[in-house]
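Internal ticket - ligand job 332, NAI:
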Amino acid sequence: MSYTITLIPGDGIGPEVTGATREVLAAAGAPIEWEIVHAGRRAFEEVGEPVPEAVFRSIRKNRVGLKGPLETPKGKGFRSANVTIRQTLELYTGLRPVKSLPGISTPYRDVDIVVLRENTEDLYAGIEHEIMPGEVISLKVSTRSAGLRIAQWAFEFMRYTGRREIACCHKAGVSPLADGAFLDAFNEVGADYPFIAQANLPIDNLSMYLAMDPTRFDVLLLQNLYGDIISDLCAGLVGGLGVVPGANVGDKIAVFEAVHGTAPDIAGKGVANPLAVLMSGVMMLEHIGERRIADRINGAIWAVLEERKHLTRDLGGKADTAEFTAALIDKL
Ligand code: NAI
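stdout (C-alpha cells):
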C-alpha cells in the first residue's frame, strides 16, 4: 500500500527543507508517492497565479499535503498563497505543537504547548482600503460560525489527546464584538465539555506569562493574527522557527507545514534547518496512520539533537542542511 500525497516544495528555503524531508521519509521506508505542484512566487512567475487550480485539484483529491513555505510579497504583487490555500480549502485550524527538544540551549525546559490558530478570518480577510489619502481602514472579520467551528475542533482535540487545559486568548476588553464573539463561542462550546479545564485571558497577559513561565500553559486557542504572533513567540521558547512543525486542518483535508517562512536571508545557501518541515512530515505520517515510521524518525531526531555533533547554525552548530540530513539518515 502506498499513499499519494501532494507536495508543494515552496519558495526560498522551501525546496531545500522539503527535499531533506523527502530524503529522510524515504530512508525511513515511508510508502509515499509525492504529487508535486507549485504555488507562491514560483507559480506566479511560471503561470501568473500564486495558487494555480492544479494545486487545489491535487490536495482535494489526495486529502493530505506537505507544503514548503511560500513567499508573500510585501505591499503590491500577489495575494498571500498561504492564506488563499487555507481559506479556499477551509483549513480552519492551524495546529502548532511547541515542545522543548533535547540538545538545544534555551532559557526554559519542559515547554509543551499546542497553539491552535483560527486560520480563515481576522485581518487575513484582506479587506483593507484607503478612505482618503493617509487614512486606511483594515477590517478584522470575526463570525460566530467560524468561532464555533474552531472551538468545537479544539475541544474534540482536547478530548482525544487527553491534554490538560485549554485557554482562549483574546482582547475582548478592546474588541468586545469581534474578540467577544470568539470568546463567547469558546465558552458556549466549552459548556458541553465540563470535564476539560478551561480558562481565558487577555493576549497581553498571555505574552507576559509566556515570557515568565511558559510551562504553565498547555493548549492555547487564538484568532488568526494573535495565533500567528504567539506561534513565533512560542517557537522562540524552544529554539526558534527551525524546530516548530505545524498543520492546517479542515474537516476532510490536512496540509502540513512548518511555522517558518521562506527565510530569504539564507535561501539557496544550503544551511537551513529542515527539522520544522521534517517534524511536520512526522505529524503527517501520524495523521495517515504510519505511527511506527513516525516514531522511528522521531527517535533519529532525538538521537541527533542529543549528540549535538550535527546541529544546524540556527541551533548553535556548524552543520549544513545536507550534513544534518545525513546524520538523521545514519541514525535511522
Ligand atoms: P521567516 O520565518 O522566513 O524568517 C525569520 C528568521 O528565521 C530569518 O532570520 C530566517 O533565516 C530564520 N529561519 C526561518 N526558518 C528557518 C530554518 N528552517 N532554518 C534556519 N533559520 C530559519 O520569516 P520572514 O522573514 O518574516 O518571512 C519571509 C517570507 O516568508 C515572507 O514572504 C513571508 O510572507 C513568508 N512566510 C511564509 C510562511 C508560510 O509559508 N507558512 C510563514 C511565514 C512567513
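Auto-summary: The chain has eleven helices and twelve strands. Residues 2 and 180 are 46 Å apart (CA to CA).
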